[in-house]
Specification:
Length: 334
């Protein structure tokens, strides 16, 4: 693509996910995709575009509008040896399937003392920034990270999208795969992807930018905001380190601890409300592990503890570059 060799392709996150799903289906005929409009339509965001045409209706299934039924069917398929990939159209629609996810999907392996594996991936477009109403823009990832038995991950760039979806499908544990919907087709994050070499393991965070003055930690759609903030801060003579968590359960905080011990300051950024969140868990753990290295309290730049607002107000709700930099200023001025 774009004149690059086959192993290096310049992709958007949406296209990378599509190719990652395709690669997983080509490697293993037990991989099945199911969800609302994933077949003929190719998904609301066109992530599964062309897959039913190429793999057939037996492997890419259009389902009724019933998230509980989608998850329940996937559990049954997994018990019978398949590797189902469920698509939830929007994160706000996942709650009719919450009982199946928390009571069945997350517990069968433990309940059966390891005899039953449930290799199910639940793909969840999440976050705001697309001008949609409530139930189409939320960030409920902390609810699922709290459930023992589930793995929870989120990609933020095309390379991770391509490889992480394949790694999640290959995992024998159930994985909630949160995808930043506003970055699906964003040309600003379009980049070259090495489709021949995985960038690293699935359940590991990664330092994306080195810095010395403060650490920014984020995941999913807010990673781009942090990278933009770090670039803007550099123009002001301030050096910010940026870490992409990638995995929310289990949390890989080793690189975060190492970074904070050097910079002395931490700002956690996410679109989710701050109370009882991934951000608050990170703040607690860093305070516990890095107390004597901290030069200021751990601060958070997040969404607000309110229902998601109408679209004309979402730019005030979502943490943007200015709010992140303001929070960094507070940390530096402590």
């Amino acid at each position: 693509m774009d004149g690059t060799p086959d192993a290096m392709q310049k992709l958007t996150i949406g296209k990378a996910l599509n190719l990652g799903l395709r690669a997983a289906m080509e490697k293993d005929d037990k991989v099945i995709i199911l969800g609302e409009d994933v077949g003929k339509l190719g998904g609301v965001f066109r992530i599964t575009d062309g897959l039913q045409k190429d793999f057939g209706e037996q492997r890419v299934l259009d389902t009724p509008l019933a998230e509980s039924g989608i998850i329940g069917t996937a559990v049954g398929l997994a018990v019978r040896g398949f590797r189902p990939v469920c698509e939830i159209q929007f994160e706000g629609f996942i709650f009719p399937g919450f009982d199946q996810i928390s009571s069945q999907l997350a517990k069968l392996h433990y309940r059966s003392q390891g005899r039953i594996k449930v290799p199910v991936v639940v793909r969840v477009p999440f976050g705001g920034g697309i001008g949609a109403v409530e139930h189409h823009s939320e960030s409920p990832e902390s609810l699922f990270a709290h459930i023992a038995g589930l793995k929870v991950v989120s990609c933020s760039n095309p390379a991770d999208a391509y490889w992480m979806i394949q790694q999640a499908i290959a995992c024998d544990d159930p994985v909630l795969f949160f995808e930043p919907k506003r970055l699906y087709h964003n040309g600003q994050v379009k980049s070259e992807v090495d489709t021949a070499t995985p960038p690293g393991p699935l359940f590991a965070s990664r330092v994306l930018r080195q810095g010395t003055d403060a650490t920014l930690v984020s995941y999913g759609p807010s990673v781009k905001v942090c990278l933009d903030a770090a670039a803007a801060a550099e123009d002001e003579g301030r050096s910010l380190e940026v870490i992409d968590l990638r995995t929310l359960s289990p949390l890989d905080l080793g690189p975060v601890f190492e970074s904070v011990r050097r910079t002395g300051r931490l700002v956690v950024v996410s679109e989710a409300p701050s109370e009882s969140s991934i951000a608050s868990e990170i703040a607690a753990r860093v305070q516990q592990e890095c107390f004597y290295s901290l030069e200021s309290p751990v601060l958070r730049a997040t969404g607000f503890d309110t229902p998601y607002p109408p679209s004309k107000l979402e730019e005030h709700y979502l943490p943007d570059l200015d709010r992140v930099l303001h929070t960094v200023d507070r940390a530096m001025g402590w």
